[in-house]
Fold this protein.
Amino acid sequence: MADGTEDGTSGPVPFFTQARTFEALWPDIRSRLAEVFDDGKFSHGRQVARFEEALARWTGARYAVGVNSGTDALVLLLRACGLQPGDEVIVPAFTFVASASSVVLAGGRPVFADIDPVTYTIDPKSAADVVTSRTRMIMPVHLFCQMADMVPLLDLARRYQLTVVEDSAEAIGMRWDGAHAGLLGAGGVLSFFPTKTLGAIGDAGAILTDDRQLAETAAALRHHGRYGRTLAHFPGISNETTVNGVNSKMDDIQASVLLAKLTRLHEDIARRARLAAAYTERMAGTPGVLRLPTVVPRIARTDPVFYVYLVEVERRDELAVYLAGHGVGTEAYYPVPLHLQQCFAHLGYRRGDFPHAERACERTIALPLYPDMSVDDVDKVCALVRRFATRGPA
C-alpha cells in the first residue's frame, strides 16, 4: 500500500534513478550552472570552493577537499598520511576493489582481514591478527547502512601506533557519537558517484579531515603538487611545486549539482530510512531470505544511513535474473572477495582464508533504494521476492 505521499507505479523499478529529483532541483541547478558559464572557469573554481565550505559545515569537518573521484580521494589521503612504498595497510576482504587498489596506487601493500558477518564491516579481531612489523595503517570501510566498529579499531591503532584512514565513501550522514564518518581517524573520504546518497552527475569525491597539515597536503597533491590556490581555507599560499602531485581537481559542474542536492540531503536520508523500514516490514519472514539489514547497537550513539538495502538470500544469482526479467534492477555487493581478485593474486591468499567475506560475496544482493522510489515500488519488489521464494524462478 502506498503511503499517500507518492505516485506509486506498477512499472519497472530500476536499481537507481534520480529523474524526479533533478526535475525538482533543476531551477536551482540551472542557476548555478549559468554562473559557472558566466565565470568561464569549469574546474577548481568558485562553485568548488563553495561546495567545500558547505560540505565542511554539513559534516562538521574542519576541512573538506574536493577531488575528482572517491578513489582518488583515498589515494591522495593515503599519500598525505605518509604512506611509504611497501607499508602495509589492513583492509577488509569484503568491499569495493578501490579500497585495496588505492593502497597499491599510493605505493603500499594491502593486507586483508575478515568481516563481521552481521554488519559486513571489518572484524577488529581479524584485523588484530594480521598486524605485522610493517603495518602502518588500518582502513575501516563503512558499508551499506552503518559504520565499522570504531572503538576497538581505534584501540588497535593506538596499541600498534597505526594511522586510521576511513573509507567512508558510502557514509555521508553516518555519525559515531556525533562525529561524522571520516573524522574519527586521521581523515576519511566521500564518493559522489551518481548512485551515492549525495550523488553528482559524474565522478567526484572529497577528503574530510580536522588536520590542517593533512588537508593542505591533500589539496596540493590534487593540483600537481601546487600549494597555491588549492583550498578555500588556505589563501595566499605559495604556488611553488614541492611535491609530485596529480590532476584530480573537482569540476564546477559537479560542484554545482552537489551544492543543490546538499540542500535536501537531510530529507533524502530520511526518505531512504522510511523506504528501508518498509522493506524490512514486508520482507520479514520471507522464505529464502537469510538475513535482513541489522543495525548493531554500539558503545557510542550511532546514526545509520541507508545507502543500499542489502539482503542475504538463497540462490542470489537466480533471484537477480528473475527480478531483472520483471523490470527490477539489483546489484551484487560484491561478487568476488578482494583476496580472490586476480589483481591481488600475487599476495598469496587462498579460498577459505576469510570465510565470512566469501559467504557474503555469494549471498548478498542489493535491492533498489533511492529517494525517487515509491512505497508501491517497494511492494512490487517484495512481492516478486516472495513469489520467487515460494514458486521458484519459473
Residues 124 and 146 are 15 Å apart (CA to CA).
